[in-house]
Write a structure and sequence with these properties.
Two copies of one chain form a homodimer.
Chain A: E1 26-27, H1 31-41, E2 45-46, E3 49-50, E4 63-72, E5 76-82, E6 85-91, E7 104-107, E8 110-119, E9 127-130, E10 141-143, E11 160-161, E12 179-183, E13 186-190, E14 194-210, E15 216-223, H2 226-230, E16 240-245, E17 251-252, E18 257-266, E19 274-280, E20 289-292, H3 295-310, H4 328-341, H5 346-356, H6 369-386, H7 389-407, E21 438-440, H8 441-460, H9 466-484, E22 485-486, E23 491-492, E24 495-497, H10 508-516, H11 522-533, H12 544-556, H13 560-576, H14 614-623, E25 626-628, E26 635-638, E27 647-654, E28 657-664, E29 667-671, E30 677-682, E31 686-690, E32 695-698
Amino acid sequence: MIRTALLAFASSFAGYSACGKGGTWIWYPGDYALWRGNDLQARRIEHGGGYPVFWATYAPHPLVDFVKQVELDAPETVDIAWEGTCRIMGWGAKDPLPGVVSNRYVFPAGKYTVVARVYSQGRPPALYMSGPHLKTDSSWTADWRTVVSGTSGEPAPPAETRTRLDAPGRRPSEMRLSTAPRAAAKVETIRGNHIFADFGEETFGFLKLKGVKGKGRIRIVYGESEPEAMCEDFDGPDQWEYVEAGLEEELRLKVSRGFRYAHVIPDSGVSVDSVAMDAELCPLRRRGSFRCSDELLNRIWDVSAHTMELTTRELFIEGVKRDRWTWSGDARQSYLMSYYLFGGSDIAKDTLFYQRGGDPLVMHINQIMDYTFYWFMSVWEYYMHTGDRLFLEQIVARMASLMDFAIGRLDANGRPRDRPGDWMFIDWAPQPLRNHGGVTSFEQMLFVESLTAMADVLDELGRDGAAAYRKRAEVLRSEIVPLFWNREKGGLMHLLRDDGKLDGQLTRYPNMFGLEWGYFDAEQRQSVLKNVILNEHVMGIQTPYMRFYELDALCGLGMHTNVLDAVRSYWGGMLAEGATSFWELYNPKEKGLEKYAMYKRPFGKSLCHAWGAGPVYLLGRHILGVTPTKPGFAEYEVRPNAAGLSWIEGTVPTPHGEIRVSCRDGVLSVKGDGHGTGILVLPGNIRRRIPNKGSLTIRDM
Amino acid sequence: MIRTALLAFASSFAGYSACGKGGTWIWYPGDYALWRGNDLQARRIEHGGGYPVFWATYAPHPLVDFVKQVELDAPETVDIAWEGTCRIMGWGAKDPLPGVVSNRYVFPAGKYTVVARVYSQGRPPALYMSGPHLKTDSSWTADWRTVVSGTSGEPAPPAETRTRLDAPGRRPSEMRLSTAPRAAAKVETIRGNHIFADFGEETFGFLKLKGVKGKGRIRIVYGESEPEAMCEDFDGPDQWEYVEAGLEEELRLKVSRGFRYAHVIPDSGVSVDSVAMDAELCPLRRRGSFRCSDELLNRIWDVSAHTMELTTRELFIEGVKRDRWTWSGDARQSYLMSYYLFGGSDIAKDTLFYQRGGDPLVMHINQIMDYTFYWFMSVWEYYMHTGDRLFLEQIVARMASLMDFAIGRLDANGRPRDRPGDWMFIDWAPQPLRNHGGVTSFEQMLFVESLTAMADVLDELGRDGAAAYRKRAEVLRSEIVPLFWNREKGGLMHLLRDDGKLDGQLTRYPNMFGLEWGYFDAEQRQSVLKNVILNEHVMGIQTPYMRFYELDALCGLGMHTNVLDAVRSYWGGMLAEGATSFWELYNPKEKGLEKYAMYKRPFGKSLCHAWGAGPVYLLGRHILGVTPTKPGFAEYEVRPNAAGLSWIEGTVPTPHGEIRVSCRDGVLSVKGDGHGTGILVLPGNIRRRIPNKGSLTIRDM
């Protein structure tokens, strides 16, 4: 298992703020996330062919103005580097500044505005300056609307940067994930001249063929399961590709792939001695941990963490074999899990930037209405977990324009409904969800949360406009239960049809979220629990995706023991099937090869899917019980709940350190992160302040 | 003089329509113009430093869906090539199509929609297919809003293509201008180890240093004039750069530059034997010609044509030394000139695409309000000269959105006025133009023309919406003379101030355009002629840019003889100063080094400026007298006017051939283009049909 990673690019949490001593590279916020994200998504192959995404795709801006007010007592020599072409101007300076002639530039003394205009096509524009006083960092602004334009009222956002990109040679365009050589657990020769390798567990990286002889093609079939890699049909395994054997004795595949098994099929006249790989490492370091008296839960946590590490690449992707894409709904869960495993990270921020994309907007994020709404919630949750106010300043205009887009698609009653071309995903359900020809309770609730996130961000930044969003949220929220509640069935119905009648479908989704977000009075809550959540006749949830929300909601009701039982059964079931990472979907009734099939394809199911890693979140959030109550853990609560386990212990990362919780032999001990105001909440709502130094220990629990 | 050019990329007029036998590469309309245009603009250097443009710059779209309905009787094997990553789907096909596995692809029989989704970052997405029936051409659509979205009512535009890009290896991203070796007219060693070369006339290309020895830097100073190249100040000459002497004996500069003189200054320890260049050739072929009994006018036509050829690169640029940029107002004149020299061309189309850029719009084209308006006019004029209806279909949505932008910036009376950040250029005038704090008559007139062009395009395509634009144009047009006419001064005033009073400035600009566009009654026309145009006390025009419009307007009044005199004097004046290409600005009073200075810089003036080439247009349009009266020369008029010359002869290109006019020894002969309906218009408005075969000859003229 790959536990640690070389940080080839910046990922340390301190990266949010401006640089320390020297300058750092800066760029227009989100441009590198888009650029790297676009290429990341394009690495998907399917049945031997490239497979680009199907949503509108945006390029980074080719020309950006970087601007900073300076006041220099004396002329200052500054090291400069840039991507592409750069011109430096001194607006309001006494004399025009010299054209850039080298990587050393002398800024004259005086008080003026430095405008560095950088053009670059192919790689996003970026700038680096480092001098005694003048240096690039996030105190610069960056804008593709050049400074002469003055045409938009929206102020230019702060430039984006990474702490570690602190030298001219550490260009953002050259950031790469680190790799480490890795041997296969077992390599055999099969079917004459084929090589079949098992890397022992799901992994990710560049396959290497050793001892390649002869001239011709070699077909590589990757498998997450042994039968997938064994299958030589062209339409069978999801990932296969050809490489040309030629001069080199060792061939390294050009694109890193997710797999456990590799099957090497040389043309006749070509032979391969063995295979290995360069594992491409997760750029983030584990900071969260969990251990308890139940080894099954420990193993579930480990495999969840491994699943998260494999799906954490340049961005959070949803699966390592398929799609290798970044989906906003899936990503919301990756973010939440990542806060309990890695803490807040540049990967979360970059994924949020990529998801939002550029302008003009022509469709929902990933084309999915719910995925637009999850994005708003994810921005706020990122802020709660990181306190990264700079990001809010960088993203707020794009939030507002996405909200304009969403509002422009509401129906005449101000309710979200699908327009032609929109997809309402909600979940991969075992029976079709009736989503069309009306409005769904589920989407209404997500939109209320989106409006609230939008308003919260505006308030946090001290900007105008929050009230209108809040008003809209309140009106819509107040309508949902009256519109969708069915007294007979005792829960919220799924669809309100255009004829004003409720469709007969009762689903768990709106009821779970209704519990989570406090839509119900006490009587309704009991009814929902009994008639929906615990009612086996209501269609069950098979994806870990929606199980995440279901179990989260149950914890909210204090049903931690039931939740742990469900985790043991559902995730434990996958382990019993031999899983080394968690799956896109699990149905214990599927046997043999059935369990690999999905989307009408024999190996269509992803066996390493980010949304499978929910226990990392559930155990940290609800068993260790740690959650921020003010942005960036300025205040936080710890509500441990051992849920029948004889001992638990673990850590939850915050921007300032780790919070450590242990409960063993009747002794509960909590160590804070040394920074925020931590409150331990004990049964009966007893609240105790966690000290900034040392631990708070409670005996006789 | 470089007369002919190898056509390294497609420029023949036939290129507008779909391909012939095989397929051609296709892409989203305008993406390659943007991509090449962005890099073209970035080649400017000034005082040794890079100098990017200052307007909002747009990238091509990284992901495009190419779509075509097919009906194949039998499976068809097709050659395929693409940039980046491609996936092919058959929407409505019986079975899913196979993933792309090679450059040969078998499409199944049946009736379905082929969707080829291409992703490429760095180079725009492009696609090539060539099969017996299925092939890529402009009958495909291209859209960055993927076909699943269905979110916009605007239909996908036809794909863009070039006839010559008709093989998998002829990729649009690899189009380059052709080059040809060229020796200097004179090379000398000066100041010890410097080499000084004179190429005999203004030229364009890659300088080559021969016999480079030693290791160190070599400074290259380019000059359009000898004093510029001789000047070694860092802030003196506009274009200079360093190259590193190293291993190679021959060094070819990486970027092509416009210059006549090159001054090579090696570091001590470095020596250079000689210099030459690879001239980068104009991609278009001369098809227009003009000769007459006045050798001065012939020379003026030749130097104008040379100026046009030098400023015709991947796009029309405004000057070869500075800015090397594409300015929409300058470009309008380049288009008009080009129609009389090259005929309609892909360069004109690409320049129009580049100028429009992408979305969202945040400023006027080139940041200049007038330049937005010239663009609308240029689209219509391009169509008149080419009949390229496909281009209208490709650009119409972008016209409409730019018009929305312009309308969004009108004042409360529906009149264009500058907003913060806008630039009203109008002209480089010897005295400041009072443009701010009110509305200018000049901009109102340009906007009327823009609205008319917008309406004409919609009507031509049979689309809705023209009436509203036409109504707006009529209302505004009817207001202009009443608002701006000053009875005392006998002409249109420049500025109507916000306090409702006319500013005291009387300028030629609105009066010229008012004459051109028929704003005046007979009495007003006489007044404008006497009190403005022929009034030496009204500020004169010094740029060839506005002289173009002034002389055009005078020809409209039948003052051809005065116009030829003005051409002899003004352009002849530049020739007398030694010009080998025409200048950005000419003032006969400037002597010695003064004539090279501009923008407070000693060599700031561009000596090869597209707008200097006006005579190519004036002589073809008004002396040969050829003009289209229906789109694409479906109908055209020939109104020759020898204007006192004892003989004239020449050709004007049309999409179908050349129209030839000669008038010599009292015999007027006109040969049509063999296609359109040509009318010869003789003095007294006598109209004669030009035959489609043979010539129409009129004796005793």
